[in-house]
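Re-running the complex after MR caught last week's input typo. The corrected sequence lines follow. Everything else is unchanged.
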Amino acid sequence: MDELQALWRKASVQETESVSQSELEAAISHRSSDELAKFRQVIKSEYMLTWPVLFATVLGILWLPDYLMITIPLAIFFGYLIYFYQRSLQQFDNIHYEDNLQTYLQRSLRFLKSYVHHYKIICWASGLLGFPVGYLAAKNESDSSSGLNILVDTYPTAFLIGTTVFVVGCLLGIHFYIKHLYQARISAMENLLEEFAEN
Amino acid sequence: MPQTQKFLSFLNENTSVIRKVCRLYTDNPTDFHDYFQEVVLQLWKSFGSFRGESKASTWVYRVALNVCLSQLKLRKRRVDSTAINAEAAQLWADEPYDSTEEEQIQQLYAAIRQLKELDRAIILLYLEERSYDEMAAILGISQSNVGVRINRIKKQLNKLIHGRTTSSVA
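Corrected-run output:
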């Protein structure tokens, strides 16, 4: 190993190239390509998009009193989403690069797992919410004898089609979204922590 | 002195550490440049909060290793592990002085890149002649664990480079 250490010292001599002022400016102004930081960006984008949706739902409560059974649960749901994203962003900010390697990995993994777990719960909850929403929508349309009745003859059919499409579409879409965005990363983090556990 | 000048001066004192860490976790100039820029960016973001509670070099190692590992593992990418193959290792073992110094350094990097991600961090700190205490602080494991791991990695690395039997290393 002594010869490797000697070789490493020679390698170190080659790595002393200074960073210029312009290189520094380029580095600190570039958009972060860090994968963990990209997750934060995804969460923040979803968070920002939820605000106008919540705003629209609140307007719906005010302007569409006939649909309160639909708009109030939706407003509560999107309000909870806002809270969920805010909490996730706070948790994310507790992950520090200057922590030691093991703590950093544990925090990152804990964050990703907790985020995905809650995300899944929200997906299932939104799926279940789809049933009463679909039911009420179909009932309203059926009572007013307009709109939906053009497409479907009876109100139970509208209920079945509406809720099935909504629930299956939402759950499948979000299942693949989560799987591709997070699951592989969680496995990678777990492998790294397993390496720590080895002796 | 403005903050950027202070940081630039700090960065240039530690640039060698950052470059070596990035080199161990990348296998091409484009990735190396990306990782280097990312480490500099994260150091810059945290520079204001660095209060000198740990040694500056310890802090730089932590940030650089955490950034490189999160880049590498979260991207699910692996560096080219075929850069040094058994045949090349045997050639080097038989006639080590035929290679130029530069080639030997590149082969050393390539051999280290074949190790597991965490083992690369450990051997880097070992080759940098860091104390077990400092290594434990950077990695978050006990000193005794550091010692056990280093022995295992040394054997593995020696086998990779020289094709020697593990018993000849101890």
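None of the earlier attempt is carried over here. Chain B touches chain A through 60 residues (CB under 8 Å). Chain B has eight helices and no strands.
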